[in-house]
Design brief:
With 160 residues, the protein is mainly alpha-helical. It folds into two domains: 69 residues, Arc Repressor Mutant, subunit A; 72 residues, no CATH class. Helix content is 50%, strand content 11%. The chain is built from six helices and five strands; from the N terminus they run H-H-H-H-E-H-H-E-E-E-E. Strand 4 and strand 5 form a beta hairpin. Helix 2 crosses helix 4. The protein is elongated.
Length: 160
């Protein structure tokens, strides 16, 4: 089965998927059961089918999946936080800031750190606005944001 083909309920083997992706329960924020459930769900199986396959209830699969997705999101936030700590440029954008003022704040911080950011002002506003989601409405930053720029010029935006 090719990776882009829809799941055939019988053809999907969670153990095989976990082995092929290098899952290591000892090094993961996910339990093996959480990884199994995510692997099967990402292959298109319905919760009821996953439950049948794993010999449990659909409610249990739903709970395991919700916990797994929450753990994945926490892991992503942890990585983003660690990257922000390591970034040579960190700029806090307070709530109430005009989005048009963000590029100059970022460029000034980059100049001080000797880091080149590879975005024009309009591009940088778009990057920040897109990454911030509903924290930016129109031109107004509604929630405090943190913009970091890595030494390679990569820009990341975090919401606390």
């Amino acid at each position: 089965m090719a990776d882009d083909e829809p799941a055939d309920d019988e053809a999907v083997d969670a153990d095989d998927l976990l082995d092929r992706t290098g899952f290591d329960a000892g090094a993961s924020v996910l339990t093996r059961r959480q990884a199994e459930v995510l692997a099967l769900r990402e292959r298109g199986l319905r919760q009821v089918d996953v439950a049948d396959r794993l010999g449990t209830s659909r409610a249990n699969v739903s709970s395991v999946e919700a916990s797994a997705r929450e753990n994945v999101e926490k892991a992503r936030e942890t990585v983003a936080f660690a990257e922000a700590l390591a970034a040579p440029v960190r700029v806090e954008i307070p709530a109430g800031t005009d989005l048009y003022d963000v590029p100059s704040r970022v460029y000034d911080a980059c100049d001080e750190a000797g880091v080149k950011v590879g975005h024009t002002a309009p591009d940088l506003m778009k990057v920040v606005g897109d990454a911030a989601g509903d924290a930016v409405q129109g031109r107004e930053v509604r929630q405090r944001l943190f913009v970091t720029v890595a030494s390679d010029g990569a820009v990341r935006v975090r919401r606390p």
